[in-house]
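Aim 2 progress update. The chain analyzed this quarter is reproduced below.
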Amino acid sequence: MLSIPFDSLPATQLEATQRQYSAQGHKDIMTDIWEGIKKEIRGSLPEKSFSLWIGPVNLVETKDDTLVLGCPNKFSLNWITENYIDIIREKLKLIGDGNYKLALRVKTPEKPTSPPGIFNPIQQLSLPNITRHGGALNHNFTFDRFVVGKCNDFAYSASRALALESHIPYSSLFILSNTGLGKSHLSQATSHAIMKNSPKLKVIYITAEDFLNEMIFGLKNNRIEEFKNKYRHSCDVLLLEQVHFLGGKERTQLELGYVLDALANDHKRIIFTSSLLPKDIPNFTKELSSRLTSGIITTLEKPDYQTRVKILARKSSEQGMKLSEEITCLLANRLRGDIREMESALSCLKAKSELLKAEINADLAKEVLRSHSSEESAIAPEDIKNLVCQYFKIDPQILESKSRKKVFASPRAFYIYLCRYHTGMTVEEIGKTLNRSHSTVLYATEVIEHRMKVDKKVRNQVEFLRAKLKDLPK
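Predicted structure tokens:
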């Protein structure tokens, strides 16, 4: 690149050049600030949501101390304004030290291109989500690696039958469970088994959120017919994860209903997973609820003691660990949550043993359990209820009332969330303390988990209440 020293330029040109360099330097600073904001936001959102909404937003210009961000289209601008503007401003205030402002506008439209994994512009059916060889699936999620117990034996048997038996009286399966109990493992195991036994079948494995995103892309880019053809006519097996995500998405629910009708008419196999029954999903149509529950409904519960022992034995063996019966029983007694909690505890136990060159014994296991269990099972639900009611300044009987007012529903959700993670109670047991169903408990837990990700105030409230629980006399 040709370099011209400033002192060789005429005065007017020198001033113009200096202004240009100054403006460019200012924009570089603002660009760095925006990229820093995106990096911070990425850690607070699901990867798919970040990639779809925040990732495409770029800094288009700077005006004084204002970042002008360009959104791909008006729909994106409106969605970001409604759902993500607060978190963007929070990160901007943090990174920019409160000295910068924010503005959004629609970028100059470019020729539409397909986001990865939606539509292939050359060969319509060459899609990553059509997994004939398991490309989009976890290769560890197979039937032979699924630990079967009383808490999941029916769901396992129903899934296996749908995958391997040709003469069964049902073609759709609804798997219900909370996060971390194996519903994704079962749905993907079914897919693996179908593709192994019938490799010519076209299998689509997708989350409800990705289904929504694909439909939006098709609508915005006049390619909705490709979308419809992919799901209605070019699919032999549909595995749709996390259908509770579609609550309130009326247009997507309508399209999904058409898809399910088309697949059912052709006797295609369909598997759904969800943390809620369709009837308990907020703003979910009765028509779609009926379609989703027209087949077999199965439930995965928290593993009982015997199943926890089997899971720990399997997982520890996979990690190359040899646990004594004493340590396995100790872990099974204390780790009463989901399977991920057990995997995390085993990973920590192995890491401590290797890094500290220490023997895996009861003392080391108890040390690891302090960060995973910490005797939280000793906390009674009444203690949590009293703490929450004292904090929110409401009468404890209000939590058990049928009122859905926000002023009462929010403390109720906090109580449920704390009970889920700070007692050894099952979902049903927590529900009984409030005269609520297990579906309500699951939904309230998800609400708090989501709000903690996007609302700093809620996150601080949860941390404060947890700290208070630790101070309670045991």
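The chain has a mean pLDDT of 79. Residues 96 and 375 are 42 Å apart (CA to CA). These observations will guide the mutagenesis experiments scheduled for the next reporting period.
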